[in-house]
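This follows on from our talk about sequence and fold. Go ahead and set the record down below:
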Amino acid sequence: MQVKDLQPYEVFGIFDMITKVPRPSKREEKIGAWLVDFAKAHGLEYIQDKAGNVIMRVPATNGYENHEGVILQAHMDMVCEKNNDIVHDFMNDSIQTYIDGDFIKARGTTLGGDDGIGMAMALAALTSKTLKHPNLEALFTVDEETGLTGAFKLEDGLLRGKKLINLDSEDDGQLFIGCAGGIDTLAKLYFTFENVNNEDNWFAARVKVSGLMGGHSGDDINKGRANANKLLVRFLFNESKKTTLRIATIEGGNLRNAIAREAEALVLVPFEYKEQLRIDFNNYVSEIESEYKDVEKGMVLSLESETLPSQIMPHIISERLLLSLYACPHGVQSMSKDMPGLVQTSTNLASVKMRDGFVEINTSQRSSVESEKHDIKNMVECALRLSGAKVSHGDGYPGWKPNINSLLLDKAKEAYIEITGQEPEVKAIHAGLECGLFLEKYPWLDMVSIGPQMSGVHSPTEQLSISSTQKTWLWLQKTIEKL
């Protein structure tokens, strides 16, 4: 069976079409054009704004004309991650999906269920022949994953509805009414390579960390998963205290909102230290495997000899870089005192990249408390500035403060109880949602966020539950009808 054969077809058929359209963040031209074509083919009113966001509208069904309009919202872009052994061009290739039991998965890449399935449900609602609804809008935003650009640039006066259902959550039976705010911190450490002299005196080795679970830096930050950048730097720093260690290249992680799954460095040590390096590495592997044995079952750490490179970083740069990266915080910093189990503040050491003339370090910070967001941002800045790097921050985005007196919340809870006989969990989420930005421009909006069960989001292990999608589709329809 293929994804397009799953029921209900109006959801899975559309989702299958979406997976065939390339849609990397900041490059949503193809999915934007596809949405416009979809609107034209189904006779839907639509507009595409200057930012590339697409808004579609359908009038209320009979009897619902006097009720307040409802907005369904999802984002167009997807996180583009793949395993190193997979050949895939995210700008041109379709996602290769398959069904494994109750799950839809992709072959070696991210699936794009985040937020392709949200788009599919919104489009299914717009084109449904049986759904009873008030005036219905769908807002599809660009670049949610790497900058919330579509939400930032959404113009005043475009949205007409009073209630907004965000379809970008990933937890079955959970109803979200708040989210953390966030900000990015970027460091650039400039240097000039030095030539390798006295070639006979050096031993070159490539140290690699791979096979980690990775995941979403908001949803998965509290699950005890390892960060490949931190594991790599931990070993290199320990060795640098025992011998002269020089870095030729270092790379780790990819996207700012994904926990680093892979990292590697090409390093030089004195030739007479060669055997001790291997001994230390084997001891380190045993140590790390013991620490993460219950979490990182696919972890692979390796050390292999390499051809001596012609250039290396200056010794002082290698030293400062390791000191800063080791000192740079990563992970949960505090938990909420108001909502048990909710991460309040965290930071993610997302990526370390070699550029032309500098090392680029990307990190992201999240918090539901604005002052703590800036505190951890400053802490990260201090650690990175100690290397001599130039540090800058993104604009950041606001959190979404919960509204427990929401009519939409009440109706969504009623709908879930009618479908399942159980109450949904009402929660806030540590991941960032666009709702806080919408509220700045449309302060009257009543909002909730729902979505089907997904796991491994932002990594090639991403999977979407079929049964949860079916249930969430029923939940969405019932909520809209109750409004």
Summary: The domain at 183-393 is CATH 3.30.70.360 (Alpha-Beta Plaits). The chain has eleven helices and 23 strands.
